[in-house]
Backbone:
């Protein structure tokens, strides 16, 4: 038996025993013909993934990636908030097979959703409470402005460490290299610009010449056409069959006369 | 026919054209044909003198047959041969005659073209005549409103003047170039012309004139908005500072390389003379201004 056959048989067997798969049934029940349930399940899944991302952000060492993850979380929150109204509409719709208690429960669930979404921490959670200092860095979300220097204000703390001076040097070098590269590009662009301008002027110069050529060639073509037509007329005239027959007959007559004279003179 | 001796053809043609008792009217047609054949034969055998004569006569024949176009063409061939013989006055005469014939055919472009060819031929030997020829050629083109063709000719005149070290005349022609370029909306050529003018003045070590020229040209919008304007400004300020290094550095930049080769050579040789003198002059000027203000 080949691999393909094995795979097909496994698929068939799985399909037949699907009805014994508890988890799958549960999902299917949820998503069977009930738009509200489906949508609600999707929103729940998104909230779960957002909370996971929050965990990730809090573990992040570099501020930049933390900021990026927070921004993503905020985007997801905005999207979810937009979906809440649709869910509310769906919750009010009457679906068969659902009891009134369940309908009420659904309404409550939907109402609870916005709060749950807002509660997802995205680095700006403290702003509402403080009502002040908006900043994109999570470190500024604390209520008071705090210096990072851990209360050390002596000179030594502010001397550049080896790391920072190395960093600065690297930055300067890279900047220099970039400048050099940009200089070269600008030189090339200058040359290109000049060439393009010159080409433009040259083409402008040639436009009226081309127009002249155009008119002259048109005139020549018209003359040629004229001449051809006349030539055709002349040739047809010459070669018309009537003239041709007359020519042949006259030729025969002349030859006859010549032969007759020849015979007469020979004698 | 091409096998027969060109000399014989010439004499035959001469016979046809000279009037005598047996001949009451000159047969220019066949004569011209014979002249042309003879001329070609001479040219092939590298006998330039005789070929030139033959072309002259052929051209005269064509004139008699009232076809100035062919006459002009033969005249040009004669002139080209005269150039080979380095007979400059004849070159000029022939080309002038050819251009007159072209004007008769109402083709000013060709006329100016032949004058330009003449100028190019004699520019080493007789530069002043060359300048005259170029100017006439430019006038012809401008009358026909074809200024764009004239731009090259103006460049050539400027080069001759620079070679003769007549810088003011060179600048005058550069400004004429700018004017012609303006008429046909060739802004790039125009700006380059003005920049070249400033450079020529600086090369002649005349900062005042250069500044005046720069101010005049700045009146023109197209120049004001261009790269060449910025560059000229930088150059002039470097001169006013009296900073030789700065001048050299500015002169190496890309804007210069886009200009005409002669101008590039001038720019590379900047600064000529003592730039520090300009610096002190400028400083004195500022001090005087302060004094006047103080009195008030």
Residues:
């Amino acid at each position: 038996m080949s691999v393909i056959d094995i795979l097909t048989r496994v698929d068939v067997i799985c399909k037949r025993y699907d009805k014994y798969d508890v988890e799958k049934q549960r999902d299917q029940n949820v998503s069977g013909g009930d738009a509200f349930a489906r949508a609600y399940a999707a929103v729940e899944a998104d909230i779960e993934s957002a909370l996971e991302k929050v965990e990730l952000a809090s573990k992040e060492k570099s501020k930049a990636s933390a900021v990026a993850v927070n921004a993503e979380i905020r985007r997801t929150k905005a999207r979810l908030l937009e979906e809440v109204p649709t869910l509310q509409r769906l919750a009010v719709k009457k679906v068969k097979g659902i009891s009134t208690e369940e309908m009420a429960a659904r309404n409550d669930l939907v109402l609870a959703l916005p709060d749950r979404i807002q509660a997802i921490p995205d680095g700006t959670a403290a702003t509402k409470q403080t009502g002040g200092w908006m900043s994109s860095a999570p470190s500024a979300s604390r209520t008071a402005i705090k210096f990072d220097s851990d209360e050390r204000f002596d000179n030594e703390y502010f001397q550049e460490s080896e790391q920072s001076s190395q960093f600065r040097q690297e930055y300067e070098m890279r900047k220099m290299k970039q400048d050099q590269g940009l200089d070269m590009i600008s030189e090339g662009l200058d040359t290109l610009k000049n060439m393009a301008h010159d080409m433009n002027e040259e083409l402008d110069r040639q436009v009226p010449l081309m127009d002249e050529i155009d008119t002259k060639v048109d005139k020549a073509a018209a003359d040629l056409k004229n001449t051809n037509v006349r030539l055709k007329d002349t040739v047809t005239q010459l070669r018309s069959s009537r003239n041709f027959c007359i020519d042949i007959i006259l030729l025969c007559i002349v030859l006859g006369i010549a032969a007759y004279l020849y015979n007469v003179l020979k004698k | 026919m091409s096998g027969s001796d060109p000399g014989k053809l010439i004499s035959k043609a001469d016979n046809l054209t000279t009037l005598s008792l047996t001949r009451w009217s000159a047969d220019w047609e066949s004569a011209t044909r014979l002249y042309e054949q003879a001329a070609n034969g001479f040219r092939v055998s590298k006998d330039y003198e005789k070929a030139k004569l033959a072309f002259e006569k052929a051209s005269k024949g064509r004139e008699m047959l009232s076809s100035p176009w062919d006459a002009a063409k033969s005249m040009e061939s004669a002139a080209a041969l005269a150039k080979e013989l380095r007979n400059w006055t004849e070159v000029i005469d022939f080309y002038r005659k050819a251009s007159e014939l072209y004007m008769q055919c109402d083709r000013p472009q060709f006329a100016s073209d032949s004058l330009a060819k003449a100028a190019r031929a004699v520019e080493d030997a007789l530069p002043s005549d060359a300048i005259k020829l170029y100017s006439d050629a430019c006038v012809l083109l401008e009358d026909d409103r074809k200024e764009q063709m004239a731009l090259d000719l103006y460049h050539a005149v400027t080069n001759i003047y620079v070679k003769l070290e007549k810088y003011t005349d060179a600048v005058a022609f550069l400004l004429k170039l700018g004017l012609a370029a303006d008429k046909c909306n060739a802004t790039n050529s125009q700006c380059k012309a003005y920049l070249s003018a400033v450079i020529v003045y600086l090369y002649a070590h005349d900062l005042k004139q250069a500044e005046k020229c720069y101010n005049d040209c700045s009146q023109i919008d197209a120049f004001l908005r261009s790269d060449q304007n910025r560059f000229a400004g930088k150059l002039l300020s470097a001169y006013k500072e009296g900073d030789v290094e700065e001048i050299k550095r500015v002169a190496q930049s890309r804007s210069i390389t886009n200009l005409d080769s002669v101008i590039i050579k001038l720019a590379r040789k900047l600064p000529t003379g003592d730039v520090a003198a300009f610096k002190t002059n400028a400083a004195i000027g500022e001090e005087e201004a302060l004094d006047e203000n103080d009195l008030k």
